[in-house]
Each structure stands twice: as C-alpha cells, then as structure tokens.
Amino acid sequence: MTDADVAHFYNLPSAYPEEWPTELDDEDEEEDAALQHGGSRSSYHVLDRSNSRTGPSPGSLKGNSGRENLVKVDEPDPLGSRNSVLSSLKKRGLAVADDNRLRNRFLLSSTGFSPALFLSQVHSDASIKTLVEGLNFLSQSIDQKSASLKVLVEANFERFVRAKATIDSVYTEMRHQGREQDLTTHRRSASHLRRISGHDFPPSNADSKKNALLKESDYGVKGIRVPLTEASVKAEEVWGPALSGREREEMLKAVVESMERHREVYDIGGLLSKSIKQRDYESVFEQYRKARALTQDAKVIADAATREGRALTDEEAHVILALGRMWIDVDQQIHGFKGDLWRRLNEAPSTSTRITTSGPVEEYMELIGALLELGVDDNPIWVWLLSRYDYLRAKTKAFCDRGKVEIEILRRRLASGAEPTPQEMASYLRRAPQDGSAEPSPLPDSDQVIELWECVHTYLTRLLSSHGGILGEVLDFWEVAQSFIDGNKQKLLPAGFEGESRKHHKFASSDIRDLQKGLIELVSLVRDGVLSLFAEPPVDDVSLLTSPVSPASPSSPISLGVTPTESRFKLDPKNIPFPSPKRGELWEDYAFWPPFSNSLSGINYLGQFLVIIGAAAGEMANLEPVASSSNTRELLRGLVSVIRERAIRIACSAWEKDAEVCRMLEDWTRDPKRRDLTKMPTLFVNFQNAVLTGLQKILFMSEAMARPGTVAVVSQPSTKLLQMVRREFIISIEKALGGLVETAEHPTTQEENDEWSVPESTAAHSKNDGLSALLAADAVDSQNRNVRILLTLSNIKALQADLVPQLVANFESSFSVTLADEAKIIRQFLDQVDQRLFQSYTEPTISSLKSIIMEGVTSPTWEPPASRPEQVRPYVYNAMLILVLVHTEISTTIPSTSSSTASRSATAGHSPLLSIVLTHLLTQVSKSLMSAFNSRPSYSLNSLIQATLDTEFIAQTMSQYSSEEASGVQSQIYVELDRRTTHEARARLQSELGEMRGILKRLREKTKGEFACFRKPRSGNSQKPTSA
Predict the structure, then answer these.
(1) Which residues, including other chains, have CB under 8 Å from residue 948's CB and lie 6 or more apart?
(2) Which stretches does UniProt call biased (Basic residues) (predicted)?
C-alpha cells in the first residue's frame, strides 16, 4: 500500500498532514441539519461511521444493510508487482471474488490476511530476486504507513475523547431509561448529554421504552444490535490493520529472513526455466540434481521428526513447505521438458548430429542421455529404436506403393502413344557405341522411354542405395541397434540420479530377438518392393496418386521427397490414363520395361539395375540377423535370380525385335574406312557388341560381384539362361542379315520429306550440300538395284570373312562358351544369303548372255562362207560388252580395298567380288556356248574354225577370270565339236591352228583398248586381288 493509497483511504490531503482538515469538521453541522429535517433519528447516529464521511470510501464494499464495508474488493500487490491481488488469483484459477472470508486472507488490509497463503498462491512462481525486491518494497510501505498513522492518531486525539464521552453518556441514558426518576435529574442528565454530544435529544416515550434496559427490550440493546454489530465490524476492519501491522511486519521480516537463508531453493525454478529455454542440458541437469538433493533433505527432516515423535518446528515446517513448493515447480518444468525430449526423440534420425562444445554428438544420443539423466520409467533407447523401426516400415511401404504407381502411370502414358516406326527405331540403333570409343554416345531411345527408365532407376536408387536411400537408413538403424545390443553406446550414456537409469542400459534377450525380427521384416519389405516391380505384372489400381498427401513432417514417410518423380509428377485425377489394349507384346507383363523400348536402352539400364540390386542384396545378406536366417538369405538369392532371369528374357525379346529392324540400318552410304562397304556392317556389329556386352553384365553381374558380400547372393547363371542367349544370338544374326536381301532387292519407299531417309552423313548439311554430295564421284545410286545388290554382297563378304567371326569370338570370350555348332549354323546361313544375292545379281546377266550367244550361234549368218573366217561373230562382241559393263559396274560400285585411294581406274586393284562374278559369268558363257554349239547337228571346217575362234577369243580375253570349271567346259566344247565334224575336217583343222593363233592375236590386238579392263594388272601398278 502506497502513501497515496493511505491518504486516499482516510480522505487526507497527503500521507503526512500538519493538522486535521477543516472540511472534515463540517460533519457536525451536517448532522444538526439532518436532525432538523429528518424527523426522528437515532440518538446513536454518531456510532455510524458512514455518516461521518461525505461519501463512500474508495474501493470499499457495501453490505446488505447499505452500510459500507471498509475492506476493499481488491488492492495492489503489497510486494509491488504490476498485477493486483485478485487478478493474480484469477490467473491461477482461484475464484475468491464471491467468498469474502477467503478473499480477506489474501488482502493485506484485512485482519484475516495469511502471509503463507498469500506467498504460496499469489507468488507461487516468483523467483528469489523478485521476492527480495518485493520485501524491500513492503518494508518501505510499512514504515511510511506507520508514521502516517501515528501522526493521524495524534492529530485526532480530541475526536477520540469526544467519541468516548458520547458513548459513556449514551450508556448512562440507556441504563436509566424507563425508570421513574426526578424530572430535574432527568433534564439535568439530558442537558449534560446535549452539552457533551453537542446535540439535543427530544424526549420520546416510545424511544425511551425501546431503549430501556429492560428484559422485553433485550436490556436496551435490541434496537441498536445491528448498528453496533456493523460498527464493530467496521471498527475492526478500519483499525485492525493498523493495530496488527507490527505483528504482520514481524511475520514478513521472518519470511524474508527465511528466504535469505534458503535463497538457492527459490532460485532453482527460475534458473531451470532459463536453462530449458536455452537448451543448456548441463545446466538443466545441475539444477535438477540440486532440486532432488534438497528434496532429500526435506525428507530427512520429516523422517527425523517422525522418528523422534515430535511436531515440526516453525523453521522446519517453513523449510519443508518451501522445498515442497520448489519441487512442485521443478517437477512441472521437468515434466514438460521430458515431453519435448520424447517428441524430439521419436523424430530423431540415426544420422543427425549436433555441434556441441565437446564436438559433434548424435542427436538421438543427446536426447537419450538427457532422458536417462532426468530419470524416466520407459527405456528411451528402446522407445527410439521402436520409433525408428515404425518410421522405416511406414516409409518403405509408402515409398514402394507410390513409386510403383508413378512408374505405372508413365508406362500407361507411353503405351497409349503411337508405336515408333522402323525408321525411328533404326535411328536409335545407329547410336550404339563403338568399341574403344571415348566419346559419350547419345541416348539410344526416345525421351519418353528414357524418362521411364530414369524413373525406375531413381526408384531403385532411393530404395536400395546405402548412401541416402531407404536401405542406407535400415543399415544405419541396425548399426546403431547392434552397438546398443553390444553395450558400446551405453558407455557414453549417464546412469541418472543415484544410478536410477542404469536399468535401461541393458536389453533383455526377448528385446534383442524383437529387434532382429524387426530388421528381418524391414529387409523383407525392401526385398518385396524390388521384387514386386520386376517379377509381378503392372499394378491395376493407380488411385493412390489421387489421394491427398499428408503435410510433410519430420517423421512422415513421404517428407523427404523420396518418390521417384518428386514434384515433376503431375496427375489430373479426372484424367487418369487407363491400361492400353493388349497387343500380345511380351513387355505388357513387365512393369519395369517401358513400352516400345529398344534393346540398347533396356540392356544399358538393366545392367545398372542389376548392379544396384546385387550390391543391395549383398549388403542385406551381410547383416548378422539375415546371415543367421537361412530362409531370408535364400529369399535374397532368389530375388537376384528372379530379376536376372526376367531381365534376360525381356532383353532377348527386345533384341530379336530390334534385329528385324537392323535392315533399316542400311542407308546406302559408304563406310569412311572401307569404301567397298556401306556403314551397315559396322553399325550392325556395334549394335551386336553393345547387346552382348550388356547381356554379359546382366547375366554374370560382374560389376556387382566386385562389391563385398555380393558373392553370397549372386549365383552362377543357369544353363537355361545361357542357352537362351546363345539361341537369340543366332536368331538376331539371321533376322538382321536376312533382311538385307529384301532391302537390296526391294528398297523401302521413302517419302520426299521423311527425315529418316536422309543419311546421317548428310543430315546436318543444307539442301545444296546434300545435292552436291549425291553428285560426288563416290556417291551410291541407291535407286539402282544392281548397285544395292553389289554393296550388299560386299557387306556379306566382309561379314563372312571378318565381322561375324569377330562377333562369335566376342560371344565366346564374354560368356565363356564355345559356339562350334552355332558358328557352323551362322556360316551356313551367310552362305545362303550370299548365294541368294549372288544369284539375284548374276541371273539377269546370265540370261542376257545365254540369249545373245544362242541367237548368235543359231543365226543363219553365223556359219561362215566358203572362205576361211578371220573374224569372230558379232554376238561375241555383244557378250563381251555385257561383261565389260559388269566389270565397270562392279569396279565403280565396289572400289578395291588394296588400293590406297578409292580410284576406279582400270589399272587399280580389283575387288574380290569382281573376280568371283566374272569367273562365274565366264563359266556360264562357256556353258552357253556349249549349249548353242550343241544345237547344230554338224560342222564344216569353216564352221569348226569359226566356233574355235569364238570360243578361244572369249577364253583368251577372259583368261584372268578362268577357272577349272570354265576350262573344263571349254574342253568339253571342243569334244562336242569333234563329234559333229568329219575326220577330214579335224585333220585339216590341225593344219589351220597356226593361222588361227595369228588371227586370234590380231583380234586381241585390235580390241585391247575395248577389253583392257580384263587384263591382269601389272605388279608395279597394283597388287593382285586377294580371293574372297
């Protein structure tokens, strides 16, 4: 209570007035006026304290009788805090406004004020510093109030005396009321009373009888009992605090002294609150240990009093109460702090660390240590391990379910699109990497297919990666759990107050078994997430993506964005793609294979997938519980085997389908390194080598086998898989090279603006550049059937001689097998293809030659006149001209590989195919001559000479391309001629041989320019062509 409050309460101009205020003396005149105008009035009105004031006391209450109760409704905090007493109690939930008795125990102005109750309720959470400041404030207020009351009593002493005289006079008058007394005495007495009180009392028989001290009037107090009671209460309320102030002062001083002696008790709550807000764990532990130690002291005091059978002293009671209040505060704060620790522990990952003064510390270890230090009933280690298990289990399920649905959505979108054309597929196959090429090759498939492959790759990486994936979290979880099982981590954890938390440092055997079972379940969930994607058909229900995702929180399974497509994946719930109609394709039963994907992209990604899966299976198999469980270990082995078999099966199917498209690799442009070939053989070999390399990685998982522990789960490929690859190798070659015959004989129609018809070598050039390239000397006329067949024949020869044997050798070295039977089948197939193309090219020429020779020999003009013939017949020149055209066509289309340049000069080295074709044509010419000569029944000498000249001219001119078969046919011609002539003609022919040699020499000299292409090249100019 301040000086201002005191002055206001007593209507004083200040807390220390020099004299009684004049305005306060006006009450006598006001009372006289009231007697004059108010009629009858109690003669004891002077006892009514309320009538001596001009207005109600500020802050006072009014009772039911209308009189004022000088105890205030509320008052400021006597310790100087900002809140009033009742407002502080309302905040604590204490309803004292309607209970005057309880309210008075908290008001300093009331005689029922209880200091202990006041401090325990109003200042229950005050710190020592706050209480000390309040004590100083209260001491100053008490000193100031005591001084002001002393001055007030001294200044109003005369009023007190007048009040006492009035009371005595009233008592005397009331005592003699109703008795027969002398009138003089009565008047003297009344006059005396008026003189003392300053008022006149008119005689009233009714009032006298009423106030008489008789039995029926309750001895004179019946009429004034209520006013007296009210006056007594008011007097107690007004003067009681002033009279009992010293007692309360001494009591408060005793409280302050006790607080000074036990300052640390009152400081603990504030210091603990500050430490909790700052997360200063060491300070929290220090304050908590101190509080528990002090609580033990209180228990010792109480036990000692009980043991001695005595009551607690005031000092002991105060100490116990203070310690109890302190412990309630500390316990409430620690309880909330523990709740926060439990919450954070449930969300703490196994890899999160926090930097402290002692270095980096795992967050979960710090939280577990804090809980053990504070003492808990549940084992925080076990609770954290269970929370991690539940988190990983939920996260794995949610990730796998949502990831597979996202993959299926992309797969459906791709399947609902248009199937790529063969030209488009061939453009991707051209991107097969070359052996030994250091340059990165472009992606060998469409963007949509690559997107789906990347989605599957992301799914496996985030599920199986040991660094950042779900499996990595499982491995970290078990590593921590194993360290707790071994007791290594517990060495860093506290034992708590008096070792009460040491019981949580050890796990029961049943708990260890539960942890091992939990790990095996997590491993099984990861395994199922992979196996369901690779071994099961595509999912039908994709409604999971339409359900709202719960808001991300640190403990939610999807909070880390682990889904394969993350925020890029947008799905309209009203436009969910439906499964595409069945086309009978194998990939429709494979959820991981993008529709229309080619074998190059598929094998490339499947190889990466098998490395990830094999390494993950090895890491899971190395876990002790998994290694001890033969069933789980076999399931992991089965996982790798099933996925490998499924991958090989679908890859071989795509390989076979792509082999059918390999015919589109032929773009009729020359190979820059071998001008006698097109690019097709090199592209085909690159494609085959890329497929074989990828299949070898999938089948033997060589990269995965290099990882530790993978050997335990990766078995050797079965004979069935090897046989499947061997069979597909032969099929791919047969389908790819078999299509070359169709391409050579019947080229695919190309639209005018078809981007796929533009050769890759000229695709980047402008229209003018492309036109000039087509007009270049080395350009290939792809519209010419013979040119296509010749180039294809040259390609087949190169494949027979070098490229296919290289492929076979590569297969044998990659798969550690011998392809004796397969190589024989491939050679036979190539021979068939070569024979078919060879016949396709030579048959039109042979037909022309046969027709020319037959018509020439059977012509009536063929038989010479009577003179000896000296010229060959025209049909011979016509047939030779056809051979010249063939020579020219082959030489220009297929340049010699022996020449240093692509020159097609007559003196340049010939292609092996040229010798083969011309040798075959020479044989067919010889057979045609024999057939034609056999058509004549007989020959004269001149006819015999003419037939010999025709045959010999062709044989000598084409001598470079002669073969045993052709020589045999020529010999047979002469035998047939001898049969059809006379003995005389044969004898004369012998005499003409010399002349015939001269004629043939002259004829060859005349035609050496025309038939120079058939001459054998000189060794100085060029090398002799090698046979095919």
Answers:
(1) 974, 977, 989, 996
(2) 186-196
Least Cα distance to 945 among 1002, 985, 1001 occurs for: 985
C-alpha R_g of the chain? 61
573 within 8 A of 546, measured Cβ to Cβ: yes
Find the domain containing 344 and state its range.
Answer: 262-377
- Residue 351 sits in the same domain as residue 235: no
- The region that residue 66 occupies, defined by phi over 0 for left and psi between -120 and 50 for alpha, beta otherwise, is left
**Pair (372, 398) in one structural domain:** no
Q: Are 428 and 665 in contact (CB under 8 A)?
A: no
Residue 404 near residue 591 (C-beta atoms within 8 A): yes
Task: For residue 213, give the amino acid letter.
Answer: L
Secondary structure element (H or E) that encloses residue 360, with its range = strand 359-362
What tokens were used for 802? 């070098």
Q: Determine the residue type at 190.
A: A
Q: Which residue matches tokens 């057979």? A: 927
Which neighbouring-strand residues pair with 362? 353
Instruction: Quote the tokens at residue 738.
Output: 């078999």
Same domain, 576 and 703: yes
Report the C-alpha gap between 932 and 951 in whole angstroms.
12
Pairing of strands 68-72, 60-62: antiparallel
Enumerate the β-bridge partners of residue 61.
69
On whether the CB atoms of residues 767 and 756 are closer than 8 A, the answer is no
- Domain tally for the chain? 4
What is the amino acid identity at position 141?
Answer: S
Q: Which residues contact 292 (CB under 8 A, 6 or more apart)?
A: 497
Residue 424's identity, in one-letter code, is: E
**Is residue 830 situated within a structural domain?**
no
Sign of CA dihedral 476, 482, 488, 493: positive
Residues 172, 151 share a domain = yes
Residue in 842, 861, 868, 820 with CA at minimum distance from that of residue 985: 868
Domain boundary among 717, 739, 769: 717
List the one residue out of 641, 814, 639 whose CA is nearest residue 726: 814
Q: Which residues pair with 69 in a beta bridge?
A: 61
Cα–Cα distance measured from residue 388 to residue 8, given in angstroms and rounded to the nearest whole number: 68
Q: How confident is the model at residue 211 (pLDDT cuts 50, 70, 90)?
A: low
Q: What is the DSSP string of 967-1013?
A: HHHHHHHHHHHHHTS-HHHHHHHHHHHHHHHHHHHHHHHHTTTTTGG
Report whether 626 contacts 620 (CB < 8 A). yes
> Of 198, 226, 252, which residue constitutes the final position of a domain?
252
What are the Cα distances from residue 251, in Å, to 64, 142, 244?
Answer: 34, 12, 11
Write out pLDDT tens, residues 521-556. 999 999 999 999 999 988 887 777 666 554 444 444
For residue 678, what are its two tokens?
A: 């097109």
Q: Is residue 728 part of a domain?
A: no
- 979-1018 pLDDT, tens digit per residue, is 888 888 888 888 888 888 899 899 989 888 888 888 876 6
Count the residues in the chain. 1028
Of 660, 646, 592, residue with least CA distance to 429:
660
CB 992 within 8 A of CB 944: no
- Strand segments (E) across 489-612: none
The phi, psi pair for 708, rounded to 5°, reads -65, 135
CA angle 878, 879, 881 (to 5 degrees): 65
Q: CA–CA separation, 465 vs 615, rounded Å?
A: 9
Using CA atoms, how far residue 853 sits from 869, 880, 946, 1013, in Å, is: 18, 11, 14, 21
Which has the minimum average pLDDT: 13-22, 134-143, 525-534, 868-877?
Answer: 13-22
Name the amino acid, one letter, at 152: L
381 close to 509: Cβ distance less than 8 angstroms: no
Determine the residue type at 435. Answer: D
